From TrEMBL:
Domain of life: Bacteria
Domain HAMP span(s) in chain numbering: 184-237
Gene name tied to this protein: csrS
Reactions accelerated catalytically: ATP + protein L-histidine = ADP + protein N-phospho-L-histidine
Organism: Gottfriedia solisilvae
Protein's name in the database: Signal transduction histidine-protein kinase ArlS
C-alpha cells in the first residue's frame, strides 16, 4: 500500500511517523524524569521533616527526662508547626496511637512492619507518602511516623502528561502541514523535470528544466538532465543529418545508374559507344557507392569501438611519413612537399602502421582536393617526453570558422560543390578522428579561410614493457 503512494505522500507520512516517534519518546522521557524528580524531592522533604522532628524530641527529652511531660510538650509543639497536608503520629511498640497531629489528612492505617522505610499508597483518592523511625527514650519505646500528602504533585504529573499529549497532537498537526508543504517545495524540481520530460516525449526536444540559483542535489540533477538532453538533441540532429546526407549521397549515383541503364535499354544496345560509356559510368558510380558503404561501415565500427586489430604492433612514425611523402611525390609530380624533423630520434608511437597510414592519406587527399593552383604541403614531426606530434599544413582554400565547428561531422563538407567533383564523401576526417581517438591520441584542425589548413596529430609514445 505504501509503495503505491506518491513520493509527496511518502515524505509527508515519513515525517509524521518520525515526529510521532520522537515526540512519544521525548514525552515518555520527560514524564519519567518529572516523576522521578518529584518523588526524590518529596522523599528528601519527608526525610528532612522526620529528622527535624526526631531532633526536637531528642532535645526535649534531654531537658526534662520525664516521659509524660516530654511527650505532651512535643505534641503541643507539633500542633503549632504542622503544615497543611502533613501528619505527625506517635505510636507505642504495640501500634497503639499515642497522639496524632495532622492538617487536612485522611486517616492512615498503621503498619508496624514498615518502620524505617518509605511507604506510598493511595487513600481516598489521595497519594500519601509516609516515613517512620523507632524511638527509645528511657523506658519509652515507640514509633514516630511523618506523612505528607503528595496528591498535588501527582496531579501535576497527570496535568503535565495531558499538556504533553496536547502539545504532541498540536505538533503532529503542524508536522503534517509543514511536511506537506515541505515535500511540495522539495519535489518541485522533480515535478518540473517530469513536466519537461512529458513535453520532450511529445517531440519538444528543445525543452529544458529550469534550474534556479540553489546549489543542491536536485539542481545538480536538473543540470545533468539538461546536459544529457543537449547531447541527445545534438546526437539526434547528427543522425538526421547523417540519414539525409547518406540518402543524398546514394541517391545521386543511383539516379545516374538508373539514367544510363534506361538509356541503354531504350536504344543503347545497338550503339557500342553509348553502351560502353554507360557501363563505365555505372561501374564508376557503383565503385563510389562501395567506397561510401565501406567508409560508413568502418566509421560505425570505430564509433562503437568494434574496429578489430588482429595484432597490435607500435608504429615507426618516420617510416610511414617518408612512405607517404614518396608515394604522393610519385602520384603528383607538381606537388611540393617540405619535410621538417625537429628531433634527431623519433620513438615509435602507440598506433598501428595501417591506421596511421590511413589517417595521413586522408589528410594528404584533402590537401590535394582543396589546394589552389599549386599544391604545397609542409609536414613537421617532433617529439616530447610522452608524445609524438605530426603537423600537416597545406596552402589550400582554408575552412571558415563556422565550418570548423562541424569539420568532424559525418558527411559534412565545407565546399559541397567542389567535394563531389573531387570524389569526396565527407567521411574522411570523421574516420581519422575516430581512429586517433581509439589510440588515446588527438586530432586538431586549425584553419583560416583562404590561407590554408593545418592538421595536428598527437600520439602517445609507445613504451616497451
Amino acid at each position: 500500500m505504501f509503495n503505491k503512494l506518491s513520493i509527496r505522500w511518502k515524505i509527508t507520512i515519513t515525517i509524521v511517523l518520525l515526529m510521532v516517534f520522537i515526540f512519544t519518546l521525548c514525552n515518555i522521557i520527560q514524564l519519567f524524569l518529572i516523576q522521578v524528580s518529584i518523588i526524590n524531592q518529596q522523599h528528601h522533604r519527608i526525610e528532612k521533616r522526620l529528622t527535624e522532628t526526631v531532633a526536637y524530641m531528642d532535645e526535649e527529652y534531654n531537658k526534662k527526662q520525664s516521659n509524660e511531660t516530654f511527650i505532651m510538650d512535643t505534641r503541643h509543639y507539633f500542633e503549632k508547626i504542622i503544615q497543611n497536608n502533613e501528619m505527625i503520629r506517635l505510636l507505642d511498640t504495640n501500634g497503639k496511637v499515642i497522639y496524632t497531629v495532622s492538617q487536612k489528612m485522611p486517616k492512615i492505617d498503621i503498619d508496624k512492619n514498615s518502620v524505617g522505610q518509605f511507604r506510598q499508597y493511595r487513600l481516598h483518592n489521595q497519594e500519601i507518602l509516609i516515613a517512620s523511625k523507632a524511638l527509645h527514650y528511657g523506658k519509652f519505646h515507640g514509633i514516630l511516623e511523618v506523612a505528607i500528602n503528595v496528591e498535588i504533585f501527582s496531579k501535576f504529573v497527570k496535568e503535565s502528561f495531558f499538556i504533553l499529549i496536547f502539545g504532541t497532537i498540536f505538533s503532529l498537526i503542524l508536522s503534517i502541514i509543514s511536511g506537506w508543504f515541505l515535500s511540495k517545495k522539495l519535489l518541485k524540481p522533480i515535478k518540473n523535470l517530469n513536466h519537461t520530460m512529458l513535453k520532450i516525449k511529445n517531440n519538444q526536444l528543445k525543452e529544458r528544466v529550469f534550474v534556479g540559483e540553489i546549489n543542491d542535489e536536485l539542481s545538480e540533477l536538473g543540470l545533468i538532465f539538461n546536459k544529457m538532453m543537449d547531447e541527445l538533441e545534438a546526437s539526434i540532429t547528427r543522425q538526421k543529418r547523417f540519414v539525409e546526407d547518406a540518402s543524398h549521397e546514394l541517391r545521386t549515383p543511383l539516379a545516374i545508374i538508373h539514367g544510363h541503364l534506361s538509356l541503354v535499354n531504350r536504344w543503347g544496345k545497338k550503339d557500342e559507344k553509348v553502351l560502353e560509356d554507360s557501363l563505365n559510368t555505372c561501374i564508376n558510380e557503383t565503385n563510389r557507392m562501395i567506397i561510401l558503404t565501406n567508409e560508413l561501415l568502418q566509421l560505425s565500427k570505430l564509433e562503437k569501438g568494434n574496429e578489430e586489430i588482429v595484432k597490435f604492433e607500435p608504429c615507426n612514425v618516420l617510416e610511414v611519413v617518408h612512405e607517404i611523402i614518396n608515394n604522393y611525390r610519385l602520384l603528383h609530380e607538381d606537388m611540393k612537399i617540405d619535410y621538417v624533423q625537429e628531433n634527431d630520434n623519433i620513438d615509435q608511437a602507440n598506433i598501428t602502421r595501417e591506421h596511421l597510414m590511413q589517417v595521413l592519406i586522408i589528410l594528404f587527399d584533402n590537401a590535394v582536393k582543396y589546394s589552389k593552383d599549386e599544391t604545397r604541403i609542409n609536414i613537421l614531426v617532433n617529439q616530447s617526453d610522452q608524445h609524438v606530434q605530426i603537423r600537416v599544413t597545406d596552402n589550400g582554400i582554408g575552412i571558415s570558422e563556422e565550418d570548423l565547428k562541424h569539420i568532424f561531422d559525418r558527411f559534412y563538407r565545407a565546399d559541397k560543390a567542389r567535394s563531389r567533383a573531387n570524389g569526396g564523401n565527407g567521411l574522411g576526417l570523421s574516420i581519422a578522428k575516430n581512429l586517433i581517438d581509439d589510440y588515446g591520441g588527438g586530432l586538431e584542425i586549425t584553419s583560416e579561410y583562404g590561407e590554408g589548413t593545418t592538421a595536428i596529430i598527437t600520439l602517445a609514445v609507445y613504451r616497451f614493457e
